[in-house]
Amino acid sequence: MTDALTASGRASRPVVPRPVITEDERVLSGALRCIREAAEAGRPLLGELPLAERLGCSRQQVRRALAVLEQQGIVRRSQGAPTTVDPLALRLSSRFDARVEYSEVLARMGYAASAEVMSSGVGELDAKMATLLEMSAGTRCIRVRLRWFADHQPAMVGLYTLPLPVGHRGDFSPTDSVFDSARDVWGEDIAWEVVTAGVSVLGPREAQWLDLTEGGAAKQWEVVGVTLSGRRILHSAELHHPDLLTYSFVRSIRPPWSVAGN
Hints:
alpha+beta
C-alpha cells in the first residue's frame, strides 16, 4: 500500500485529476452553488445581473444556466418576480438511486470537487468479502482508498476493492475512475449496484479522515457493483460526512391508488 508522508507529517498523495469543464459548465456549477446557498437561507435567488457579477460571466450565460435548471425543476421563474428555488427538486440532484461519479454528485450541488488517493495496492479477498462477491477466499484484488473534498472540506472516504481475474498482473492507476478500472479488468461495465446504507460511529482514524469529532456519526454505504452477466466485480465501503449532502431517492407506490374525495 502507498501512503507517503512529507517532512511536515501531512500526506503527500496522488491527486485524482479533475475533469476538464467548459465555461458554460463552470457557470452552471457556480449557479448551483448560489442556488444551494439560497435554499439553505430560505431566500430567493439573486437576480441575473448580480448573479453574473458574482460568477464573472455575462448575463446571457446566466440565462442559459437558469434555463437548464428550470427544465430540471430546480428553479422557478416568472416575469417580474424573483427566481425561487424548489428545495425538493434540488435534493434530487444527489439521488440515492442514480449512480454517477462522486465528483459529479458534488458538482450538481455547486461544490468544487477534488480527491486524493490515500492508499493503494494489491491484496487478497478475505473470506467474508469473497463470499459476498462469490469469489474464492484469497483471490487477488486491487484496493484503493480515496478521500473526496467539497470546497476543500472532507466529504467522503471510500475503500474500493476490485477482485482480479486469474492471471491478471494487477497493473492499475489509482487515480483512474474505479468504474473504468473495473471495465478494463473484466471487459464489461457495472450495470447496477446493490447499496446497503447505515450509520457508523467514528473512531479516531475515521474522524480524522473526515475532520469530525471522534464518537460522532457518519453515513455509511456498502456497495457491490454487478455486471449484466451477473459478476460481482467491485466492492466499496464508504463513509460520508453527515451534513454536507442529503441523498434522496424516488419510491414508487403500487396501485391501486386512492384519490381524495372518491
